[in-house]
Amino acid sequence: MELKRILHKLTVCQVADLSAVDLTADFYFLGRTDEEISLVCKTEDTPARTIRREDGWRGFRIQGVLDFSLIGILSKLSAVLAENKIGIFAVSTYNTDYILVKEENFERALAVLALEGYKVV
Questions:
Q1: Is it the case that residue 79 has pLDDT exceeding 80?
Q2: Distance (Å, rounded) from C-alpha 10 to C-alpha 103?
Q3: Which of 37, 42, 83, 117 is geometrically suited to a Cys-Cys bond with 8, CB 3.0 to 4.6 A?
Q4: What is the CA radius of gyration of the chain?
């Protein structure tokens, strides 16, 4: 299975409302529930006003389109990283899964996954 690096530095934050978010940006994830609005975006695209903010994330995605019938892909990746004491922040889209790790763990995360047979591109 191929994993593709995301070249951007990322921020995970909470915003009070959607007006703070640049919906024309080329890379972001939004999650809205009855309790919060969460945003993952390029660090340089982070809104000036956030409720909470955590910079210093890097990420990669599983290459290709994952069929919904596939089971355990994210679980296996997160287990390898957990065994190596690397925490994750996972986000899924219709096509695939994205895994974010703190910047100081990024290269080590990719290295341990490569040792487990994942191809990093």
A1: yes
A2: 9
A3: 42
A4: 15
- Here the CATH number for the domain that contains residue 45 is 3.30.2130.10
Number of domains in the chain: 1
d(CA 42, CA 28): 7
Q: Which pLDDT tens digit goes with each residue over 7-54? A: 999 999 999 999 989 999 999 999 999 999 999 999 999 999 999 999
- Contact criterion met (CB below 8 Å) for 118 and 1: yes
Encoding tokens for residue 18? 């959607």
Read off the amino acid at residue 65: V
Q: Tell me which residue of 45, 40, 53, 55 sits closest to 102, measured CA to CA.
A: 55
Note the pLDDT of residue 34.
96
d(CA 58, CA 56): 7
Give the relative orientation of helices 73-83 and 106-115 as an angle to the nearest 10 degrees: 110
Nearest alpha-carbon partner for 3 in 98, 82, 79: 98
Domain of 115, in residue numbers: 2-120
